[in-house]
Amino acid sequence: MIRSELVQKLADENPHLYQKDVERIVNTIFDSIVEAMARGDRVELRGFGAFSVKKRDARTGRNPRTGESVEVEEKYVPFFKTGKLLRDRLNKE
């Protein structure tokens, strides 16, 4: 599912809201998550999962084409850990 499909589904399920307002709500939620992660905060959505930021230290990597050693700077990467309810729902038998 992509963002526009999410907006459309929410708009269809809430006919009393304009699609433009639903789009603004979805964008506000995503922007809030991104801003919190940029500050280094953890964002937890109970039953769904938690978004956090992990630090990757600097290291020596290898160019796959040439085999040449390349220095890779330290960086921060987004990390998502699924919540128990989501994990259980995906793995139900």
Notable characteristics:
93 residues; HU Protein, Chain A; alpha+beta; three-stranded antiparallel sheet
> Can you name the CATH architecture?
Irregular
List the helices and strands in order: HHEEEEEH
**The CATH topology is what?**
HU Protein, Chain A
CATH class: Few Secondary Structures
The N- and C-terminal alpha carbons lie at a distance of 23 Å
Q: Work out the radius of gyration.
A: 19 Å
- Helix proportion of residues, in percent? 40-55%
Under CATH, the homologous superfamily reads: IHF-like DNA-binding proteins
Report the biggest beta sheet as strand number plus sense, adding barrel if it closes.
3 strands, antiparallel
Could you tell me the number of beta strands? 5
The domain tally reads 1
Shape: elongated
Q: List the strand order in the largest sheet.
A: 1-2-5
Mean pLDDT over the full residue set: 95
**Beta-strand content bin:** 25-35%
Subunit structure: Heterodimer of an alpha and a beta chain.
Protein name: Integration host factor subunit beta
GO molecular function: DNA binding; structural constituent of chromatin
Family: Belongs to the bacterial histone-like protein family.
